[in-house]
Each structure stands twice: as C-alpha cells, then as structure tokens.
Design brief:
This protein is mainly alpha-helical. 55% of the residues lie in helices and 11% in strands. It has two domains: 40 residues, no CATH class; 63 residues. Helix 3 packs antiparallel against helix 4.
C-alpha cells in the first residue's frame, strides 16, 4: 500500500501556479500567540502614581476617573470643533481687551490706554494675517 500524499493548492488564499506536494508531518493549523495581546500590552503596567493598570478595563477606568483621554479617542470632527472653540475664545479675549482699552480712555488713563491700544493693534494684525494666510492656502 502506498502512503497517502498531500498537496497544497493555495498560499495565503491565492492559488499557486502548480500544486506542491507536502509531507505528512507538516501542520497547517492556524498558529496563535501563546499569550493574549492584552497581556503583552498591559502586563505589569502601572500609572505614574503607582496605580496598577494591567488590563484594558483597569486602564479605561483609571482614565475615566481622572478625566483623561487618549488622542485616538477623538474624531477629526471633534478636534475641528475644539480648534474653532479655541479661536472663538481668542476672539472673545480680544474683544475684552478692546473693552478695557475703551474703559481706560474713559477714566483718563491715556498712557496705559495707548500701550494697550498698541498691543491690541499688534494682536489684531497678527490674527488677520494668520486668517488671510490660512484662507489663501485653501
């Protein structure tokens, strides 16, 4: 009686040009890592304050308890909203600065008002330059 022969017809899901004969002792079972990827990534991990965060669950709870987040937790849309909010806050601060300038002029503090006016003018000019460059790139 002849030995049973085995043939390999594909490799990585792609057909081979010609079948290849393989030996009987070749194990084609899918190989798995002996350790989970969670164990590899979190094994023995501790936060800077010494708290163990050696599982995904503990890491997630630690971050949530302290109001922390990872960069990948935010979508590009939320990042764009945050940048727009920061720009609006900057505009509001410029508005407040102009209000203080008018108040100082009304109170007669002309020297301080001139200094504040110069700072405000420089800031407004820089902001206008930034936005004109940004709009010119798009």
């Amino acid at each position: 009686m002849t030995a049973r022969r085995r043939w390999l017809y594909t490799s990585g899901g792609q057909p081979l040009p010609e079948p290849i004969e393989i030996s009987e002792d070749l194990d084609l079972a899918e190989k798995r890592a002996p350790v989970s990827t969670e164990a590899i990534a979190y094994d023995g991990l501790r936060a800077t304050d010494g708290t163990p965060i050696d599982t995904r669950r503990r890491h997630r709870e630690y971050m949530k308890e302290r109001g922390l987040a990872l960069f990948g937790d935010f979508s590009p849309e939320s990042q764009a909203r945050d940048r727009a909010a920061a720009a609006a806050k900057s505009d509001a601060s410029l508005h407040d600065q102009i209000g203080r300038l008018i108040h100082d002029i009304d109170r007669g503090g002309e020297k301080a008002a001139r200094k504040l006016a110069e700072q405000t003018r420089e800031r407004a000019t820089a902001r206008a330059r930034h936005w004109s460059e940004k709009m010119g790139k798009d």
